Each structure stands twice: as structure tokens, then as C-alpha cells.
Amino acid sequence: MKNKRLTHIRELVAARSIETQEELVQALRESGFQVTQATVSRDIKELQLIKVPTADGRYVYALPPEPSVNNEARLQRMLPESFVSLDRAENLIVMKTLPGNAHAVAALVDAVGWSEIMGTIAGDDTILVICRSAVQAAAVEERFRQMV
């Protein structure tokens, strides 16, 4: 129920001008959520809602701006520090990392969103990178090698 409520709060804040917690409580109740002001206060904190000025000088709740993260630059920094080895078979790449680093590296590889990569599977120190074709895997392997 909490996840539904948080999603609905995001939708409400994006669609309407809500100035106070009381207005948000009322809007949620009208939508069928039984909430208290204390619950809404915690939800606002969890969602990291901010107050922004409107053209007429009022302040309304808004979603926080999306952080601008350059995942490829983060991968470029992290990979040389945790890389151990790399091998390829057909459309699969197996990358070895220092123990405990595979999940973080794999998450960055996924976040970069290279179209050649279908996804990754990570263990403690091993990542399986699944590419769409053997040709694309060779290109991805070369990109990784240039980073390390």
C-alpha cells in the first residue's frame, strides 16, 4: 500500500499545485487513501519533495530534479580499479573483478545502456555480459579493454 501511496503522491504533485501537507492529505483521502498528516510528512521526506515558487509567488510541492549522472564516466573510473580479466565466447563476455566489486561494475554497465548489451549477471567477482551478437560482443570487449 505504501508504494501505491508514494506513486500516487508523485502523480498528484506532478499534476496539481499542492501548497500544504493538509492539501496533500485531503487529495490522498479523496483518492481512497486513509492517511494522517504524520504519514504524509514521512512520505514527503522519503520522496524528498521540495517547495518551488509559482509564477504568482506561491510555493508548491514538486519532485526533486533528477541528478545528472554520467554513468559511462563512472564506469571509466571504476573499471580500472576493480578489473582483473576479460574473456569472450560468441556473444558472451566474462569479466573478473576484485572480490566484492562485480555487482557495482555490472550495475554501471547496465546503467550506461549500450545498445549492444542485453544485460548482465553478477556474482561477487564475476560478471557475465550478454551481448546481442558475437560481432557486438567483440566491439564491447574492445571498449572494456580501452577503459582498463
UniProtKB/TrEMBL annotation:
**What GO CC terms are in its UniProt record?**
cytoplasm
Pfam families noted in UniProt: Arg_repressor (PF01316), Arg_repressor_C (PF02863)
Q: Does the keyword DNA-binding apply?
A: yes
Enumerate the subcellular locations listed in this protein's record, separating them with semicolons.
Cytoplasm
The record's section on SUPFAM superfamilies has:
C-terminal domain of arginine repressor, Winged helix' DNA-binding domain
**GO biological process terms held by the UniProt record:** L-arginine biosynthetic process; protein complex oligomerization; regulation of arginine biosynthetic process
Residues of the Arginine repressor DNA-binding domain: 2-67
- InterPro entries hit by this protein: Arg_repress (IPR001669), Arg_repress_C (IPR020899), Arg_repress_C_sf (IPR036251), Arg_repress_DNA-bd (IPR020900), WH-like_DNA-bd_sf (IPR036388), WH_DNA-bd_sf (IPR036390)
Q: What does the record give as its pathway?
A: Amino-acid biosynthesis; L-arginine biosynthesis [regulation]
Q: Listed GO molecular functions?
A: arginine binding; DNA binding; DNA-binding transcription factor activity
Q: Where is the Arginine repressor C-terminal domain?
A: 80-145
Keywords, in A-Z order: Amino-acid biosynthesis, Arginine biosynthesis, Cytoplasm, DNA-binding, Repressor, Transcription, Transcription regulation
The UniProt function text for this chain reads: Regulates arginine biosynthesis genes.
Query: What protein family is recorded?
Result: Belongs to the ArgR family.
Q: What is the name of this protein?
A: Arginine repressor
Q: Which organism is it from?
A: Kyrpidia tusciae (strain DSM 2912 / NBRC 15312 / T2) (Bacillus tusciae)
